[in-house]
Amino acid sequence: MKRMILIALMLVSLGTFAQTSKDKQAILNVLENQRLNWNKGDIDAFMKGYIKSDSLLFVGKSGPTYGWQKTLDNYKKNYPGGKTGMGFLTFGIKKVDFLNKDVAFVLGSWHLKREKDEPQGYFTLLFKKLNGEWKIFVDHSS
Question: Would the pTM of this model clear 0.70, i.e. be above it?
Answer without folding.
Answer: yes
